[in-house]
Amino acid sequence: MFKVILIVGDGVADRPVRELGGKTPLEIAVKPNIDELSKRAVLGVWDPISPGVRPGSDTSHLSLFGYDPRRYYSGRGPFEALGVGADIRPGDIALRGNFATVNDELVVLDRRAGRTLPENRELVKYLNEGIGVVNDFEVKFYSATEHRVAVVIRGTTVSADVSDTDPHEVGVKVLKSTPLSNNENAVKTADVLNKLTLMTYKLLKDHPLNNVRVERGLPPANIVLLRGAGKMAYIPKLQEREDIVLGKCLAVSATAMIKGICKLIGFEVITPPGATGGVDTNIMSKAEEVLRAYRDGYEFIYLHVKGTDAASHDGNFKAKVKVIEELDKAVGHLTNNIDLESTVVVITSDHATPTSVRDHTGDPVPVLIYSPELIGDGISNFNELSARSGSLCRLRGTDLMYVTLDYANRVRKFGA
Q1: pTM of the model
Q2: From CA 83, how far away is CA 69, in angstroms rounded?
Q3: How many C-beta atoms lie closer than 10 Å to residue 33's C-beta?
Q4: pLDDT tens digits for 308-351?
Q5: What kind of architecture, by CATH, is found in domain 3-73+235-407?
Q6: Where does the chain hold its CATH 3.40.720.10 domain(s)?
Q7: Nearest Cα to 194, choosing from 106, 117, 90, 82?
C-alpha cells in the first residue's frame, strides 16, 4: 500500500478572466513543479457533488473524503465549532458567525468587517463576558480565523431548524431568524438568535477597539451575523470504515470548518506557524508539516490552502495567481523530499470560485492524480482546460476518494 498526499487549493478552479486574456489564474500562473508532476499523472475533472450543484466547502469536503453529503450533512455550524476547539455536546447546536459592519439602521456595509481582524479574540472574550445566557439558553462564542467566529447554543429545547440572521449580501438589513418548522423549539431558538444578534450589536458598536478601527479608517466589527445552524451528526471515522484501509491521517489547515470536519472523521489536525487561512498564509510552513507527518509514518496527509478561495471571494485574480505560485513552490518542496515510488499525490480543488462571480459555482474542478503504478497522460500544464482531455474523464462526488485510494491499493474488494 502507498501513502497518500492530497493537496487542495480551496476554490482554485475558475472561469476565463477577461483581464487575463480569457485565461484562468491556473493557466496564467507560473507553476513548473505542478506542471512537471502533471506530465506523469492522470488528469480529469471532478464534480464535488454532481454537475451544476454549487457546493459549500463543507459538503464538498465530505464528498472529497468519501462521504455522501446528502446522507451525512446536517449543517456547517458543528464543523466550524469543532475546528476552533469548541465544547460541543450531543443536543447542542452550533452556528457560523461573521464579525461584520452595519450602520445605525442595521444595514450591512461589510459582511466581513474588512476580513482582517486582529481584534477577533478580544472581541470574542468581551461577548462571552457580556452575554452568557439568552432566554435560559447557554451561549458561547469561539474565535476563528480572520473575521470568523463559531457560536454554540445549549439548552434542552434548542433546535437547528432556524434561518440565518446573515443576509449574505451587503446593502440590506440584518435578517430576522425564523423557524423552519412548526416545532415550538424552533420558534424559541429563532427568538434566541434574533435577541443574540441584537445583543452583539449593542455590545460591540461602542467598543474601544472599534473606535480605534474607525479612527484608522477601518470598518468596525460591530455585529455578529449568524448562519448555518446545525446539530452534530454521527459520521464514521475513516479508520472505522470497512470499504477502505487507512490508519494514521493528518490534516494541515488553518480553516476552522475544514479542521472540524477532519477531526470528526479521524484526522489529527495541525495549524503550523504562519498559517492564516488567507492570502498571506505561509504555505511552505504547511509543507514542512506534511513532510514531518510523512516521515512519521502517516498514511494519508491532507494539505489545505484557503488563500486561493479568499482571493476569489474578493475578486482579486492577481492575488489568486500569486497564491497558486506559492502553492507550486510548496509542491516542489514536497515532491523533492518524498519517495514518489511509494506515494500517491493528488492535486485538486474542493469547488470552483470564479473571481468574476466571487462565490462558489457548480463548475467541475480539475484534478491530477500521480501514482507510481499508473500510465500518465503526458499533459504538461495543469488547468481547467487541459484536465478535460485527461484519462480520468469526469468523476462525481465520492468517486474521487475511491479512485485515489484504489491507486494507493487501499480499497477493499466489493464482492467475492
Answers
A1: 0.82
A2: 18
A3: 17
A4: 999 999 999 999 999 999 999 999 999 999 999 999 999 999 99
A5: 3-Layer(aba) Sandwich (3.40)
A6: 3-73+235-407
A7: 106
